[in-house]
Amino acid sequence: AQVGPSSKELKGVDCQKNFLTTDEISIIGYFEKDDSPLSAAFHAVSKKLREKVRFAHTSAESLLEKEGLKNNIVLYRPKILHNKFEPSSLKYEGGDSIADIHEFITKNYFGLVGVRTRDNAGEFKNPLVVAYYTVDYVKNAKGTNYWRNRIMKVAKDFSKISFAISNKDDFQHELNDFGLDFVKGDKPVILARNAKGQKFVMKDEFSVENFEKFVKDLEAGELEPFLKSEPIPEDNSGNVKVVVAKNFDELITNAENDVLIEFYAPWCGHCKKLAPVFDELGDKLANEDVVIAKMDATANDVPPTFEVRGFPTLFWVPKNAKNSPVKYEGGRELEDFVKYIAKHSTEPLKNFDRKGNAVKAPSDEL
Fold it and tell me: Which reaction is the catalytic activity of this chain (predicted)?
């Protein structure tokens, strides 16, 4: 955690020069009156963002005169990120509100194409297009900016989409998540997510023309989303249906039945313990209009309506409310499942009453 004041006081021109000799984005407040409403709001924001952003402020006459500023806030981009597509500094033109200053900083902080690292990845919001290559501002700033400038050339025309560059070695897990095990060559690999969180891969080799077409198609909603999926099982006749990303809609979303689905991980002990119980449940409800299903959530993309954070996670999906799955929080014994399904099934079960007690099938005898 940062110690000391959240904003450094600059006493003169040399202090400013030293403060701006950095590879990070910096914010400086210039205040003729240190107790102005804008100054107070600036300091409140600096305390809020101190872990993420470098702040400084000054009331030094020499600096205010040099900059021609009396009551202003300026965002400075470091020299290594200067480019011809956006100004190297940006003056705040808004009012004295904390919210407006906060928004000005967060909206403009990363610029047209942000340098996205493991530390700040969470700050980038969808829709987001990321170029993965050997991003290295320490050993190869020139080479890094060579590709970043080409991304910028396109990014400047798409204000509704966020753009970033990331080091491909630091984000191998993301590349894997998009089905890419290894990236050879120097050219960037382009991956994207839309506002819904769906994934897209630019299949063509990187060029400014190919990249521009990809972004246009992404914005127009004309790209086919990428789905990480195991192959659809050749035989799925068991009483517990095996769901993969590619047959999810067919077996779950479009099925005209209620569904109980388990999202599991192959390495998870609790999942292994649950497996025989789930098989038994499938057999017990084989003649009912209910689908019992399971999906390996480590090998398949889970649809965004299902929030899976640990394993196993189970959801009850009523047939008339497929977009509103309900997280199953009940017990994990066979009887617990039967009682839950009997109580919540859209239509009454054939072989169990609403309390989960077995009912005799109606006799054919007169």
Answer: Catalyzes the rearrangement of -S-S- bonds in proteins
Residues 332 and 342 sit within 8 Å (Cβ to Cβ): no
**Backbone dihedral angles phi then psi of residue 192, each to the nearest 5 degrees:** -145, 160
Distance of alpha carbon 276 from alpha carbon 272, whole angstroms = 8
d(CA 304, CA 155): 27
Q: To which residue do tokens 């170029």 refer?
A: 131
> What is the rounded distance in angstroms from the CA atom of residue 207 to the CA atom of residue 150?
8
> How many Å apart are CA 76 and CA 69, to the nearest integer?
15
Q: Which CATH superfamily is domain 114-220 in?
A: Glutaredoxin (3.40.30.10)
CATH architecture of the domain formed by 8-109: 3-Layer(aba) Sandwich (3.40)
Angle at 116 between CA 111 and CA 122, to 5 degrees: 100
CB-CB contact of 245 with 297 (8 Å): no
Write down the CATH number for the domain with range 240-344.
Answer: 3.40.30.10
Other Cβ atoms less than 10 A from the Cβ of 324: the count is 9
Is the CB of residue 214 less than 8 Å from the CB of residue 202?
A: yes
The identity of residue 48, as a single letter, is K
At 361, the pLDDT band (50, 70, 90 cuts) reads low
pTM of the model: 0.80
Tell me: cis bond preceding 303? Omega within 30 of 0 counts: no
5-31 pLDDT tens trace: 999 999 999 999 999 999 999 999 999
Closest CA to 305 of 294, 317, 290, 292: 317
